[in-house]
Structure formats: C-alpha cells, structure tokens
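User: For a benchmark we're assembling, each entry needs the component sequences followed by a predicted structure for the full assembly. Here are entry 17's components. Please fill in the structure.
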Amino acid sequence: MTANKTLNMITQRAVEEGIAMEIGKTSKQYFDACSIIEMNEQDMKELGIMRNTNVRVKSESGEVVVKATVGRQACYPGLCHIRQGVWANQVVPPRTQSTGAPQYSGFPVTVEPAPNDKLKTALELVQGAVGLWKGD
Amino acid sequence: MSELIIKNGYVFDPISGLKGDKADISVKDGKIVDKVSNKAEVIDAAGKTVMAGGVDIHCHVAGPKVNLGREMRPEDKFFRGEYRGGILKQGKRMEMGFSIPSTWKTGYAYARMGYTFTNEAAMPPLLAPHVHEEFRDTPILDQAAMPVFGNNWFCFEYIKNKELENNAAYIAWLLNATKGIGIKVVNPGGTEAWAWGENCTTINDPVPYFDITPAEIVKGLIEANEYLGLPHSVHIHGNNLGNPGNYKDTIDTLKLAEGTKAKNKFGREQVLHNTHLQFHSYKGTSWADFESGAKEVMDYVNSNKNITVDIGQVTLDETTTMTADGPFEYHLNQLNHIKWANVDVELETGSGIVPYIYDKNIKVCGIQWAIGLEIGLYAKDLMRVHITTDHPNAGPFTRYPRVIKWLMSQKAREATLDTMKWKDKVIAASNIASMDRELGLYDIAMMTRAGPAKALGLSSIYSLTKGADANIAIYNLDANKLPSDPELIEAAFQNTAYTLKEGVVVVKDGQIVAEPPKYTLWTKVNMPENAQVMHDIKEKFSRNYTVNLENYAVFDEHVHNARAIELDVA
Amino acid sequence: METVTMTLTSQPELFLECYNVTPDQFAGKSLAEIAALPAHEGKIQWKLGDFFKFDGKAGETAADTKIVVNGDVRRMKRFGQKMSAGEIVINNDTDMYIGGWMTGGKITVKGNADSFLGIAMEGGEILIEGDAQNHVGSAYRGDWRGMSGGLIRVKGKAGNDIGTAMTGGTIIIEGDAFIHVLTHAEGGTVIIKGDVEGRVGGQMVKGDAYIFGNILYPLPGFKKIATVEKEVDGATYTFDQFIGDLGERKTKKKGEIIYGNIYLKK
Amino acid sequence: MPKVIENVGCPYCGCSCDDVRVTVSDDGKDILEVENVCAIGTEIFKHGCSKDRIKLPRMRQPDGSMKDISYEEAIDWTARHLLKAKKPLMYGFGSTNCEGQAAAARVMEIAGGMLDNCATICHGPSFLAIFDNGYPTCTLGEVKNRADVIVYWGSNPAHAHPRHMSRYSIFPRGFFTGKGQKKRTVIVIDPRFTDTANVADYHLQIKQGHDYELFNAFRMVIQGHGNDLPDEVAGVKKEQILEVAEIMKNARFGTVFFGMGLTHSDGRNHNIDIAISLTRDLNKVSKWTIMAMRGHYNITGPGVVWSWTFGFPYCLDLTKQNHAHMNPGETSSVDMAMRDEVDMFINIGTDAGAHFPIPAVKHLKKHPWVTIDPSINMASEISDLHIPVCICGVDVGGIVYRMDNVPIQFRKVIEPPEGVMDDETLLNKIADRMEELKAKGEA
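Assistant: Structure for entry 17:
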C-alpha cells in the first residue's frame, strides 16, 4: 500500500452528468453525478481506498475532494476519470498546446485517501474560487 | 415617390436594343420608366457608359460548400502575413476573404463592379436553409439558387420509369420546398457513383445500382424542364469535367438537347445551358499532350441555337475549387495533395473542395487560360456566351473586370502571355495568339447582363426596358474614346462611378454608400398536387432521410424577402 | 549601421502588438516619426511613443538599421514581423510571433520567446537565448507552406509543433522538445539536441530531423535503414538513419522514392 | 384541449433529433408530455416550463447579492461596458440559434472585441485539423443508407449522443442497409471499456494519449507496410491492427466518428489531422468519410455563421475594424484568460464557470462578467450581470446545424415567460444601443 499514487486522468461526458446538468448545476443530481472519480480496482487496492469513500486529487493546477468508485466503464490500471464538470475542472490544467483546448484528457494527478474530508458543492467550489462564497 | 434621371450616358442595353446611343434613363419608385418630372434627381453620366446591373448566371457564393471552403481556408484571408483584399470597411460590415469572400464582401464587391444579381450554382436541397441564411447576410444583391437534380434518387426513378409528369411534379415540389429557381445538374450519375467511390465519365456509363445513364438523366430533366416551362433551362456541368479529351463528352452532352425547343413564357430560347465550358473543352490524351478543344466545342455551340454557355475563365490566381462533382475534387486532390473536403448529401448530391493555384508558370494553367478566352472570341452570338469564372473555381468573381479586359484587348492578352514561363507551349497548344478579335462594350453588355438575364428568363426584371427594376451600372468609360491602356478598362469595370439598386445609389465612386433591401428570387410552379409523388416523398422521408419531411421545406420565415417568379401548369 | 534604442516607459494593461517594430518600418524615419507609428492594444490604437522612448538614429535602409529593445516586453508581441533586413536585439523575455513571416535580417532575444516564433519564415536568422514555446517555424493555420528558409536557433527548450508544414530552412533547438516535430513537412531541417517526447516526422513527405537525445515514443511509421556519419551544426556524429513516414504519400525524384529522414544520434 | 406538436427539434446534443412529439397545455404555457426523446432531452423540455425560470436581469450588488433590474438597464450596462473595454470577449453559443449567433457577430464587430464559441474547448482542434487537411465527410443519412463499417474513435455516443447509434449509425435500416446492425461491423477505439465499446464488434483499448501512433500504424498497413509494424502500437497488438485494417479496406462504405478523446489529449488537432489522412488513404481502396461528434445541438452553428460572416469559425479577433484575425493559441478564450488578454467577459448560452479549468475562471473574474442564459448556472452565480433569455427549441425557434452541418429548422413549442427576450432580440438591442452611444459620442 502506498500513501499516494500518480494516475493519468481524463474527464469526459456521461449520460448521468448530462441529465443532471439539465436539471441544474446546483441540484443534488448534479452533485451526485459529477463529484466522483472512477478508477481501476487495482489502483484502489494499492492506495487502500474503500469504494464510496473520499479521496483527494491533486494536479499541477489545483486539487479537489471527490468520492472514489470503480464505475461501469472500466479504466485500465493507471487511468482515472472524473466526469466532465465542476469537480474535474478544479484539477484540469488550463494549458492548451496552443490550440485553445485545455488538457482535459491525459494529465498526471496524485490520488490519496481522504476519508474524513468533506465534498464541496459546485457553488462552493466555483464561488469560493472567485471570493464570492458566503457559506451555507 | 422618388424620381431620378441618368442623363447623357452612352447606354448599352441589348434587351431594348440600345447600342451605345446617348440616352437618358428615367427611374421612378425603383423601376425604369419612360420619363420623369423635372423634379427628378439628376445623375450626369456624360462621357460614361451606362448598362443594366450585371447578372451572374453561375457562381458559388452562398451555401454549405462555399462556406466549408471559407471555414477550411484561414490562409485565404491571411496570406503570408498579409490580409488579402486590403479593403477598408466601407459598408456596415467588414469584408473578408480573397477567393471565397464573406457574404458581406460578396455583396459589396459585386455592387462595386455594377452587378446586382447572382445565381448560386449549386444548392443541395437538404441544405437549402443554409443557402437562404447566407442570402439574408449578403447585402444589396438579388440572389437565386439552383437546387441540384442530377443525382437525385427521386428523379432517377421517375426518369427510369419514364414518368415525365411525376418527375415534373417532383421538381416543382422541390423548387417550392427549397425556394429554388431552376434545375442544376452536376456530373449526372457520377456523384451518386462517388458515394461508392466510383464515377461516370461518359454519358453512357451506367449509374451503380440505379440502372440509368447520365444521358437518360439529362434528357429526362430537359423534358421535364420544358414540360413545366421554367424560366431557366436545365443548367448542366456535364460528365468528365477537367480531363484531357473531354471535349467529345461535352459535345455528346450538348447533343442531348438536339430536337428540343424551348417552351416558356419568359423569352428564353435555349433548352440547355452548359456552364464553365472552359473546363469541358480539353483535347489531348493526358496532361502532357493537353491542348485546346475550344474550336470544336464552339463550332457546335455556334450552330445550335438552343444552347447557351458560360465561360468559366481561368484568372491565374490562387483560388479554391468547389463543386458538387465529388469524384472530380478527389481526383484533383490526388494531383495537388493540398487539403480536400468532401460532403456527400443523402439521396441528393455530393460536393468536394480543394484549394488550387493556377500558376502562370505551369503549362496546363496557361492553356486553360487560353481556352476560356477562345470560347469568348470564337462565339458568334454573344447573347448565348456569358462571362463567368465559375467563381471561385477558375478564379474569384472579383476578376471579371480582368476577363473583360482580356476579351476587349489583344494587347492585354499578349501582355499576360508574355509573363508565362511556357508561353511557346501555350501558344502551340491553343489558338489564342492568332486571335485578333477585340470585343466591344455592346458585346460585353450581352455577355454580362443581357445574355444571362435572357437565359435565366429574367430579362423583364434585369434590363433597362420599361418596368424593369432600376438596377443600373455607370462605368467611367467613354464609349467613343476607349482608353488605349487596357488596365484602365479593368479599373473602370472594377469600381463603378455609380451602381443603382432599384433606383437607390448603392455605390458612388467605387464606395458602398447604401444597403437597400434585396430579393430572393424563386420559381413558383402552380400545379395540382400529384398524389403519387406526395406518396413517394413521404415514403422516402420515413425510410431514408434523417430529417423529417415537415422540417425539410424551408420555412417561410427563413426565406429573405422572397420574390416568386410564377407560372401555371395545368 | 545605425541603431535605434527603444526603452519601455509604461506597460500596457493588456498586450501591445508591435507589428511596426521592424527595421523596414524604422528606416529613413526620424525618431519622432518612429514614435508616431501605430501599435494596437485590443481595439485601442496607440503610438509606439506611448510606451517607449526612442534614442539613436535609424539608417536609410532596413539593412542599415538596428533596433535595440530594452525593458520588460513580456506583454508585447509581433516584434520583427515581416522584416526583410537589418537587426533587432530584444534584451529581455518577449511574447508571440517574433520574426513571423520574416524574409531577412537577424533577431536576437536575450530571454525567452513565446509561441509562433518565426512562423512561416522565409529567410534571415532568429536567435533565442532562452526557451521558446509552441509552433516554432510552423505554418499559419491552414497553410501548407510553412517555414521555407532561414535559421532559427533556440538555446533552451521548445514545445509542440516545431517546423509543422516546413518546406525549407533550419531550426535548431538546443534543449528538449515536446511533441510534433516536422509534422506534414515537405522539406527543411530540424535539429533537437535534447530529448523529444514523440511524434517526430508524422505525416512527413520530406525533410530531415536530427535528434541528439531520446525519442520517448517513436512513431511506427519510421524504419531504420542505416548507420551514417553526418556533420550537423559544425560537428560530426554517428546516427542511426530512419526513413518515413511510410504511412504518408511519397514523391519520386528521378525515379527514386524520396523519404523523410530521422537521424537519431548513437 | 392539450395540443400535440410534432417534428420538434431537441435542443441537447449534436444529433439535433427533429422527431420529438411534445404535448402542450391548452394555454400554451406547460409541457405535459415529451416523446421520442432521450433522458437528457426530456429534462430540457421539463425545465423550459418550470415555474422557477428567471424572468428579469439580475445585477450583482456591492454586498454580493443579486437584484432584479429591467432589460433596458441591463442592455445599457452591457453596451457601455463593451464600448469601454479594450478587448471584450463574448464566448459560448452552445445553446443559441443561428439568428442569435449572427446578432452576436454584429455586437462584437461594433464593440471591437473577441468572439469565440464552445468549440474552443471542445472540437476546436478539429477545426485546426480541417484547416490543415480538409474534411472528407457526409451527411448522417449517407451513413444510415450505405455504411457497413462504423468506427467510433475517442467518442462515446452511448453517453454523449444517446440516439446517435439508433438514428444514424449502427442500428437503422437504410436504402442499401436493409439488415441494419446485422450487416454492420462496429469498431470502438477508446482507453476505457465504455458502454459504446460494449456494443462493438471490436474494441481496441488504446493507451491514453497515443492515438496518433495508432493512426500512423493503420496508415502503414493501408500503404502496404504492415509487415514493418512493431509487435504493439499504443498498447494494441499488431495482429489486431492488421485485422481491423483489413475490415476497413474491405468496407463498402465506412465512417469514422471521432470525439473528445482525440481533441482533448496530447497533440489535439494532429490526432484528427492524421485521422483525416487515414480517411483520404482509405478512399483509394474503398469509400470512407469522417465526422466530428459535435457536442451540442447547434454548436456547429457558430462555426457556420461566423465563417460566412468573417471567414473564420471561432477564436475571432474583431478588434481591428477592417479585418478579422484568428489564431487559436493566441485568440482562443482559455489562452486569453490565462494570459490576461481580455478585460470583459460575456458568457452566453454556456457555463464557463463549470466547464473552464478553474484557473481560467479566476482570471476572467478580474473583469466585468455578464452571463446571458436562461438558467441559473455556475457562470450566472459569479457574474456581475445575469440576463435571462428564451430557450431555443422550447420557447423560441430558429435554424440550428446538426453535427453533419445539416441545417434543422427548430420550432417553438411554448410561450416564453412574459417579457423574456430571445438571444437575437437582446443582442440586436445591445448592438443598437452601442451604435446610439457611439453616434452620441458617449463612447
């Protein structure tokens, strides 16, 4: 078991995310759909992460707490996926290789167990980032 | 009530028989009238040439293919560090692009050349709303578009089954659905074959699966066109475009019109318009022994009055080729290896786009240039031979003034020949050097407005006859004293002294000064609904199309300022 | 050669487009005329004099004019764009399009340059003492005619798209490079003295890449054919020669197939 | 009597389905039932008739709260800030009709600013590839009627385009494809075993970020160099590459549908660039087309509209009055945000707050931020001004472009909340106001 591990992260659409987005970005459905990371079971085992417990994901440009799952659309060992949206974008590097498109797919993140850390809501993350968050 | 009179100009209007006589043209409420009151605003045209607004019978200026060309060529706007065109903003919107200008530049640039009507040469019916959106955003110019029929599954089946009335009813329905003006045919059968990666290179090659030949398709469409009595004839880009030796296929195609007479109420006399004839007048067996076939083709055209043609003059520019002839563009890309776009459109048509450089230092390009001019210079009846560049295929429409210069001046032709690296080979493979004919302003008026307007069945709108729209071009050319420097001829045709659109001055001294409303022209055939055809349409839509029938016809609110040319079929 | 020294006096709020800072534009002008040349910050058209003070004297011709740029010009782009002769020395880091479309003369940047350095360059020389970003000597979007002549030397490292659609000239990166070297090239030479992550020579028809370090992910489209000695940038080394891109179309010259080459230092 | 409206367009994904049936209440204000639509589309129509729709513009107050203001005030505020800014940026258009996108072009040309759409973070790299290499494509009906081999590369329609496979590609029976799925071979290339891979005949589990190498390998086989391939490329075995290449070569009609697996990973545009090269190669031996799986129902629209308006599909720099400039990497929204190149931000018909990497959001937030959108979203909740508008396809119609560039005419199904403007009207009023202010010399 290791304390943390570097994985290759991607972020893509999911039908659950699409439905939830149309219900509303402040909805519980959106929170449930997007504040999760999908990874390979083997990586979870090595990190000592239990399914449905929280982990901290850090990249060159930020960090976020999300809930760890395996997910139906399997990642191979070393690959992880956070659905497109507010949580993923806390860690997506804005570098574009001079194309305009950020590095949404294929950037290193470190993942570590954070079972006691709380998940933040979408509004807290975004308003918090720009100094507008007033708390619950 | 607004009145205006253009005084003392040399007026050239072949439709009303004015051959450069000094005459006054009166305008009232946007129409040409016999006379106006003494309160009329006066434009002094003394020492200037006056013609009706120019009519472009064949250009690709709006729609999906043109726009994909714009989209895929940023370097057409910004070329080696320079913004091409160099036009300071003069209208409401900026002007962008060289070979495939933005809609705004298209409208402004045509108006500056004294043109007020363009006929978009290929509208894929499924994508018709796109064409009409671009018309909305093209200022000043009246516009029309021809839907393509030469690879349409409905037409294939009706023609194969010899169902003339059904074919005609379907055509009428589609003109209404797309708000189109007439029947365009591009590489009949060949584009459908291209959907399987194949082609039809002669008029007798069978179309895969459909058990029909290009010859049958063209004959069937001519028959339907005359059955309906549409304002324009079938407008064809035949098989085997752009290949050495194709002049024979061209004459074969033209012969399909033999024995058919025009039947319509619009004054049109031809039953077949062969577009961009230059691309179809090639002799030789390969690019190595490539030579002009203009003489052979024009001999045929000259002796057959039921045919009109336009030139498709190569202007020796870097341009963008685009056509519904999908296999041709693929073939071209295999030669030049620059980028290639292709769009096959379900049940109807296809298209391809490839950038192309007509380099005066390449022998073939020089010969192509010569062939186009030969077509104009061999012509006996210039009402039937129209100036185009098949914009943007052989060059951008903004080069029309240069084409006019070449046709009007042997000196100008020689000067261009002198810049060619393979001048001697170009001369050897063509007749251009021996041709001393120089066209005059009346000839040019026939080739750029009267002829195309008549061929389109629109001469009652686009001429200087009484009741016509007051679309007028006034050029800085003294008809009695044409400049000896041909460059001045080009300059005069590039920027008018005045262009009027429905009596409103839109260009003054080469500058855009007003942007009045413009029309979308289309052909409305009034005929009883054909139950069989409506049944066939419903069935194809439910089985094969990916758009619902009810969303296919362009909604009225998406047709900009529609103006229907109506006709009744019992 | 006469020298104009321009020294930054105030920073733009956004970025300033210094497309007029070339020997061609300065030549034959007085300092006051030079200071009156336009420069854009977004939609605002300023004068160069609003941001720089000018000393010295311009030559009669571009070839006779040297421009020295002092101050923090990290927020200034397009120095030397389209220059044909003369010299520019930038004593600091600078931004994008340095030497874009240049046809002659020399540009030296004593610090780093950003992306689109020497884009579609036709001739002349660019020396960057620091790093460059992406699209060194590449083509403008959509153009199949990229850098066609001249020399770009970057002493530090560079990013992606080095010599994309290149047709001639030489690019030397003395440090590491990221991905896409000579992609779509139809000529030209790129020398990378450090390591490359990958994608060297993809879709290349013709051209030569010399890689002194490692290619982490080599393309399957290249095949080793020989070990050769070659003189590169003033010294001779032994290389493994690979030809490709075998997946791309090939041209023939005098009946022989022309390949792109990757020379990987042993 | 409830009214049934047929042939309604769905304003969700790039499939732009136009066969939706909507049942509307007697007064034309409520949607009672939606048929022929995926789960996501259903939610859009539900939201359209929600009683919680925002009906007035809201301006942020010094204490951070939002206060309702009139449309006139909102239009004036926006017009003045656009004129004042040196380089304002308008970005979005994921859910705007073409009429609105044309009006936006007018606004930003008058303002002298930057104009960009969601493609910039999505299929923008596909544009770059099209610039460099062209686009041999077709309409979706060609796939339905002819295709016998379908490749989904880096795209996952099961999630992002729910009806794509059933309406257009794998399952439908067309003119030459009467047997539907039975006669089609489906190949999915993706690093994950996605739900789309689950219905495929072949799934090549590629090593993430190495698509370019695999395309290169396929091209090698097509050019006759299959024997020179190494044993494995990008995590895929040589035998599997040879087998799949053979299927591609023998297709009667094949289509490659690609998605953000290509546009978002290393190399971006070049992954598509080489996919286009492969498509071209395949046309020597067979018939092949390629298509971008565009995300939103009209995100193809701005590229189309702005190409005819300015000649460029996105990343437009309109600051120079006489000409437009475009160069992604410089004039692209996220790059400009990160470089602090813009000094005002209008987020329209999208949610940059949720979908931009958060550092870009922080940079943009240094300057005035306006959100034009029917909904409450992350962008609206950090803006200085939020202006609500109609929902295209629900309470306003208009033309939209499907992923294959086919224009689809959308219909209005219910009345908008009272007083709420559509994008086109609002934007034209902002443009008119700017012209007024300029004429008065107040700018």
